[in-house]
Amino acid sequence: MDKIIICISKFLILFLVCTFSVFAGGSKKKEETTALKKQIYGLHKVDDETSSIPYLERYLELSQNELYFKLLYAKSLLYRNDLSVPKPDEPAEDRINKAKIIQKNYNLASKLFQENVLHLEKVRPRDPNLGRWYYLWAFSEWFSDNKEKSIKLFLKAVKLDYRLTESYYNVASLYESLGQWKDASLYWRKFEKAEKELEEED
Where does the source fall among the domains of life (predicted)? Predict the structure, then answer.
C-alpha cells in the first residue's frame, strides 16, 4: 500500500512539474512576442522598417501563422536600406555580388507579398488596406524586374482603392520603360484625371 502511495505521489509531482513547465514556457513565449510586437510597431511608426527586420524574423519564428506580420516583413524587405549598393569604381565581381543580394531581397519580398496578399484577399476580401498591400506588392515585382506583373498589380491596387492614383503614374512609367508609348500616354491621362477628381473631392 505504501508503495502505491509513493508511486502516486511521484506521478502527481511529475505531472505538476510538467504542467508548470508548459505554462511557464507558454508565459515566456507570450511575454517575448508581446515585447517583439511593441518593438516592431514602434519602428514602423517612425518609418524605420529596416531596423524592424530582425524583430520580425524572431517574431515569425515564434508565431509562424501571423498573416499581418508576414506582410509587415515583406514591406520591411521592400523598404530595406541597409544593403550595399554597387558602385561603378568597384571590381566587377563585387558589383555582381551586391546586385545579387539586393535582387534576392526583392525576390523574397515579392514571394511573401504574393503568398500573403492573396491569402488576405481570400480570408478578408473587404479589408480596407487590401489595395495598399497590392500597391506594395506591385513595387516588389517592379524591383524584381517583373514589369508586366507589376502593371497588373498596380491596376488591381487602384481598382480596390481609388485613392491610390499614383498607380496610374507608375503604370505609365512602366509602359514608357517598355517602349509602349501609346499605353504610357493613356495612363498619364488617367493619372491626371484621377488626381483632379481627388482634388475636387477634397
Answer: Bacteria
Cα distances from 197 to residues 164, 171, 181, 201, in angstroms, run: 12, 18, 24, 6
Give pTM, 2 decimals: 0.84
How far apart, in whole angstroms, are the C-alpha atoms of residue 74 and residue 109?
A: 5
Q: Which three cell numbers stand for residue 191?
A: 493619372
Q: What nine digits make up the cell of 40?
A: 516592431
pLDDT tens for each residue of 58-75: 999 999 999 999 999 999
Nearest Cα to Cα of residue 109 among 86, 84, 76: 76
Q: What is the mean pLDDT of residues 8-14?
A: 49
Q: pLDDT above 90 covers what percent of the chain?
A: 83
C-alpha distances out from residue 53 to 104, 147, 163, Å: 15, 26, 29
Residue 190's identity, in one-letter code, is K
How far apart are the C-alpha atoms of 106 and 147, rounded to whole Å?
13
Could you give the CA distance from residue 33 to residue 143 in angstroms, rounded to a whole number?
31
Among the listed ranges 26-35, 111-120, 129-138, which one has the minimum average pLDDT value?
26-35
